[in-house]
TrEMBL record, chain A:
Organism encoding this protein: Alkaliphilus serpentinus
Main localization, broad class: membrane
Keyword Transmembrane in record: yes
Protein location: Membrane
Family (UniProt): Belongs to the amino acid-polyamine-organocation (APC) superfamily. Spore germination protein (SGP) (TC 2.A.3.9) family.
Xref: PANTHER family: SPORE GERMINATION PROTEIN A2
GO cellular component, as recorded: membrane
Membrane-spanning ranges: 12-29, 41-62, 83-106, 112-134, 146-167, 187-208, 220-242, 271-294, 306-323, 335-358
Keywords of the record: Germination, Membrane, Transmembrane, Transmembrane helix, Transport
Membrane topology classification: Multi-pass membrane protein
Protein's GO biological process: spore germination
Taxonomy, superkingdom: Bacteria
Name listed for the protein in its UniProt record: GerAB/ArcD/ProY family transporter
UniProtKB/TrEMBL annotation, chain B:
Stretches assigned to the Spore germination GerAC-like C-terminal domain: 212-376
Lipoprotein recorded as keyword: yes
Domain Spore germination protein N-terminal: from-to ranges: 23-201
Protein name: Ger(X)C family spore germination protein
Source organism superkingdom: Bacteria
InterPro entries (UniProt xref): GerAC_N, Spore_GerAC-like, Spore_GerAC-like_C, Spore_GerAC_C_sf
Subcellular location: Membrane
Species of origin: Alkaliphilus serpentinus
Length: 369, 379
């Protein structure tokens, strides 16, 4: 059915998940949190991480209940065939739309900082084309690349952020605990959105060996990303303070403009930042892309997912060019994540899990009788 | 046959990679602007007074000669009028043979008249904050007079004006007679409460001096602080490094070189009064006395006396400056509001509404603690 033997290890799936979670949310997170929670963003990140963990355990429970089965087969076994086709299609559409937003924001950022006169269509097309290449090779190639790129992305990014520490004022994080429960709940979707992508485990779970460690992989990747977000948020606030952070569209990129060393030789690090940015977005897009093709091919009864990769290009391309401006793109993205994405990754898995528990209950009763 | 076609196809596709790059600019086709100056457009020059608000001036070194001969550098000055930074740059761009590049911009100077208009300051600073190329570490200064005069100066110490001003800015932290601010810090402070101190630049025939600071209140220039007052303001902000102050002793002024220092804040409040207390701890060396001094520098009693004289001096300086900022300009340039927000959030909630009034009626208490660590070689 697939090339290679399609088995990936726990450390590989962890790398894939970490890289998928760190998407474009990283750019806007400190701004959104400063606006909603002023200096207490880190509390919301911690609460958000815990709630994401909770949902992630729900997902891994589902995957572990059906060892060796993919998303479509799980849906089939729990909700029946016709519903499975529909929900499978919804899931792949969801992956496609997230991917489109990622692609659009990627293009906008690159155009803003690096290629001022290159048409955004060209930037986006080459990103997609590279993705196709990886997606057609399947999960194993993706897993190996993720394992390879994770340190290559993480270490330079951390070094760059540490360089910005010069001139930070940690008193900007005061006052603490000026937050009501209502505020936390109101701001929670912002953080939760920054963790979108861990639902890929429903698709990739079948490839992971041994599957009993899946929850561990989920926990590690979400905690790592949560920690990273706390770190970024802290540094950004310490550097800029609440008021300034609120007035920046991409504070995590603006912070690099504060790097300066005597002798002028490390400055204008935009080029390096953009290199990392390309990697980050690429490794966020490719897994989602693969998830979309695998789910779609299953629900359309196509045996080889690779054939579907190419036809998806124009779809993703046009969806990502649909918003007229960055502003509009963020506006749609906000709605999409708040309502559609949350319901897809929370409500549908909840229903599946309930069916599993229910069926088990019946089985036990049968045995008992 | 098939193979040949395939090879042709691959070659053709590879050829598309050779078409080049949309964003390509050769490095010698670029002008690297080091410094920008903004003024209000003079009325007699403006073609359509409604639209031309600003006069933007740039200068850059121009290379002539070359090819084996002596390379000669001459400064080129350009200035133009327009409604905002970007449209003016387009106009200037139409007059230059190369493309203007801001990635290495080092400084921004604003004219005095322009700085009095809050709208204009906000427009210009936003153009800087919004630009993905311009670093947040560039220096900013307000010129006593016109920014154009500084940009078009022929400095005697250095060939290139841009570089000269840049170096003056960089050296600022050695003299401390101007506040230590880059544009990033100014922007943060302005976002906080609209009040800040910006270095003052005083142009001379062939020199520029960084001396004192411009007091900004609600995004507009409301007055100046002198050099001594700026030192005091720096001390109150805890930015103390290599300042010399004179300790009055009998009929002499003894130079005391502060090498290190910090400031701590405290706040006391009851229903009516708010007292803002600043404790300034400094340490440093005595630079000189006079020959055959009658007083003994190795006598702790005498050192103590000098220390208390210095404490009194610092207390007076800082208190005077704080009261001037408070009563004369009503500008919270030292970000006292941010301090209250951070450390006394409940008090801040009470006074947030009428902060302006509260600040105006606030009392200050300055306590200085001076340590004379070294006295030099002679006694």
């Amino acid at each position: 059915m697939y090339q290679n033997n399609d088995k990936i290890s726990i450390s590989q799936i962890t790398s894939i998940l970490i890289l998928t979670l760190v998407g474009t949310g990283i750019l806007t997170l400190p701004q959104a949190l400063a606006e909603e929670a002023a200096t207490n963003g880190w509390i919301i990140i911690i609460v958000g991480t815990l709630s994401a963990l909770l949902v992630a355990f729900l997902h891994s429970y589902i995957v572990k209940s059906f060892p060796g089965k993919g998303l479509f087969e799980i849906l089939e076994a729990t909700l029946g065939k016709p519903v499975a086709h529909i929900i499978g299609a919804i899931f792949s559409l969801y992956f496609i739309v997230i991917n489109s937003f990622l692609l659009r924001i990627f293009g906008e950022v690159v155009k803003m900082f690096l290629l001022f006169r290159t048409p955004i269509e060209v930037i986006m097309f080459f990103m997609l084309a590279t993705n196709i290449y990886l997606v057609r090779r399947g999960i194993e190639t993706l897993a190996r690349l993720a394992e390879l790129l994770l340190p290559l992305i993480l270490i330079p990014s951390l070094v760059l952020f540490l360089l910005t520490i010069q001139g930070t004022d940690f008193s900007n994080l005061l006052p603490v605990f000026q937050l009501s429960v209502g505020d936390i709940i109101k701001a929670l979707p912002i953080v939760f959105f920054s963790f979108l992508g861990f639902d890929l485990i429903l698709v990739f779970g079948r490839f992971v060996k041994p599957e009993k460690n899946i929850s561990k992989a989920m926990a590690i990747s979400i905690l790592v990303v949560g920690l990273l977000y706390v770190f970024l948020n802290t540094i950004t606030l310490a550097r800029f303070g609440v008021e300034q952070t609120v007035h920046l569209i991409w504070p995590t990129l603006t912070i690099f403009k504060t790097i300066e060393f005597p002798g002028l030789f490390i400055e204008n690090v935009e080029a390096i930042v953009m290199v990392l940015w390309v990697f980050i977005v690429f490794m966020s897009m490719a897994p989602l892309f693969l998830g979309a093709t695998i789910t779609l091919s299953n629900s359309m009864n196509i045996r080889e997912h690779g054939f579907l990769a190419l036809p998806l290009i124009p779809i993703i391309y046009f969806i990502s060019l649909f918003p007229d401006s960055v502003t509009e793109a963020y506006y749609y993205l906000d709605y999409f994540t708040k309502f559609i994405a949350t319901s897809i990754i929370v409500i549908i898995p909840l229903i599946i899990a309930m069916v599993i528990v229910f069926k088990r209950g019946i089985r036990k009763e049968d045995q008992g009788a | 046959m098939r193979n040949k076609r395939l090879i042709m196809l691959v070659l053709l596709m590879a050829a598309t990679l050779l078409v080049g790059c949309w964003d390509q600019v050769e490095i010698d086709d670029r002008i690297f602007i080091a410094i920008l100056g903004f003024d209000i457009a003079p009325e007699d020059l403006a073609e359509n007074p409604g639209q031309s608000k600003y006069q933007l001036s740039i200068s850059f070194p121009n290379q002539s000669g070359g090819l084996g001969g002596e390379v000669e550098l001459t400064n080129v000055y350009l200035s133009s009028l327009g409604s905002n930074m970007h449209s003016i740059l387009r106009q200037i761009g139409a007059r230059t043979s190369k493309s203007i590049y801001f990635g290495h911009l080092r400084g921004l100077v604003l004219g005095e008249e322009l700085a009095k208009d809050p709208r204009m300051i906000r427009e210009i600073l936003d153009a800087f904050e919004n630009n993905p190329l311009i670093s947040r570490r560039i220096s900013i200064g307000i010129v006593e007079g016109k920014a154009k005069d500084i940009i078009e100066m022929e400095p005697q110490q250095e060939g290139d004006v841009g570089q000269y001003i840049t170096r003056i800015f960089r050296k600022m932290d050695k003299s401390q007679r101007a506040p230590l601010m880059d544009i990033g810090e100014v922007l943060i402070s302005l976002h906080n409460n609209g009040d800040v101190l910006i270095p003052r630049l005083v142009p001379d025939e062939k020199e520029i001096k960084t001396a004192g600071s411009a007091v900004i209140k609600n995004f507009a220039l409301v007055g100046w602080l002198g050099e001594k007052e700026t030192i005091a303001a720096n001390m109150a902000a805890g930015k103390v490094d290599l300042i010399v102050i004179d300790i009055p002793f009998e009929e002499m002024l003894i130079p005391y070189n502060i090498t290190d220092g910090r400031a701590r804040y405290e706040i006391f409040h009851n229903k009516e009064d708010i007292i803002f207390k600043i404790e300034i701890d400094v340490e440093g060396d005595l630079e000189q006395m006079y020959l055959n001094a009658e007083e003994d520098l190795t006598d702790p009693k005498f050192i103590n006396e000098l220390q208390s004289q210095a404490e009194k001096k610092i207390k007076d300086m800082v208190e005077g400056t704080l009261v001037k900022l408070q009563k004369e300009f009503n500008s919270d340039a030292l970000d006292i509001s941010s301090y209250i927000q951070k450390y006394h959030p409940s008090l801040w909630k009470e006074i947030e509404e009428d902060w302006d009034e509260v600040y105006k009626n606030m009392n200050f208490e300055v306590v200085a603690d001076v340590k004379i660590r070294r006295v030099g070689l002679s006694r």
